């Protein structure tokens, strides 16, 4: 087969302690899945059904646990903000999954950043337009290698600390147990509106205290039992 333009490079994430990789398909994100973050964004944190938006696979930036990766301050924005998130890698697809099937669909876990052009997102929200301009852009999803699921790891993650520092200044801190909708519930709800496929990623939401970064800032993001990533913002 010949292509009329060069084929875009496929984004893959390493698997911890494996020579295999995870080919990234779609990247689904859960909006406001921690009550305190919902409050800070002006929403009622009651347990309404989760809502979803997406990033492009090309937006993913692989970040190793032992390196610092640079991302560029994005075009067209003056308010570039961090959101640390637990990322779930899907290994089995399906639609209208039960909670048990949702648990079985999980291949592994990673640490990610849902970087956001907050000013562009706010403008879109004010006009009732889609959020993509604020959420889906180049280098907006730095993500760690994937740690494969085990029963012990899953139990640890349920109560794991999640946090983020900017230049060693603590900005976000919470626990995965504070998710409004659990990992399995998120997968179930998502599978009611999309048929999930192996290779999909789900960013499960961010805790409170999101905020801006500028060129030169370095973010350290972590989820206990998975690891931490370091990402620097450049011009």
UniProtKB/TrEMBL annotation:
A Gene Ontology molecular function term of the record: acetylpyruvate hydrolase activity
Coiled-coil region list: none
Residue ranges annotated for the Fumarylacetoacetase-like C-terminal domain, each copy included: 27-233
Gene3D superfamilies from the UniProt entry: Fumarylacetoacetase-like, C-terminal domain
Keywords: Hydrolase, Metal-binding, Pyruvate
Pfam families: FAA_hydrolase
InterPro entries associated with the record: Fumarylacetoacetase-like_C (IPR011234), Fumarylacetoacetase_C_sf (IPR036663)
Name under which the protein is recorded: Fumarylpyruvate hydrolase
């Amino acid at each position: 087969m010949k292509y009329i333009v060069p084929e875009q490079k496929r984004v893959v994430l390493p698997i911890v302690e494996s020579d295999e990789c995870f080919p990234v398909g779609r990247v689904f994100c859960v909006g406001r899945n921690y009550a305190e973050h919902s409050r800070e964004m002006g929403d009622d944190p009651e347990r309404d059904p989760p809502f979803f938006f997406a990033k492009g696979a090309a937006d993913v930036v692989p970040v190793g646990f032992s390196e610092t990766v640079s991302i560029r301050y994005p075009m067209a924005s003056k308010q570039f903000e961090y959101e640390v998130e637990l990322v779930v890698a899907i290994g089995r697809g399906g639609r209208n999954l039960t909670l048990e099937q949702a648990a079985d669909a999980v291949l592994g876990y990673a640490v990610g950043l849902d970087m956001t052009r907050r000013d562009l997102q706010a403008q879109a929200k004010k006009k009732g337009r889609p959020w993509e301009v604020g959420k889906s852009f180049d280098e907006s999803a730095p993500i760690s290698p994937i740690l494969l699921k085990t029963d012990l790891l899953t139990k640890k993650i349920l109560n794991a600390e999640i946090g983020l520092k900017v230049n060693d200044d603590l900005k976000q801190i919470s626990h995965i147990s504070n998710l409004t909708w659990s990992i399995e519930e998120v997968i179930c709800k998502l599978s009611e509106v999309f048929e999930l496929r192996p290779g999909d990623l789900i960013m499960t939401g961010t805790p409170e205290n999101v905020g801006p970064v500028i060129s030169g800032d370095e973010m350290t993001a972590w989820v206990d039992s998975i690891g931490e990533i370091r990402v620097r913002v450049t011009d």
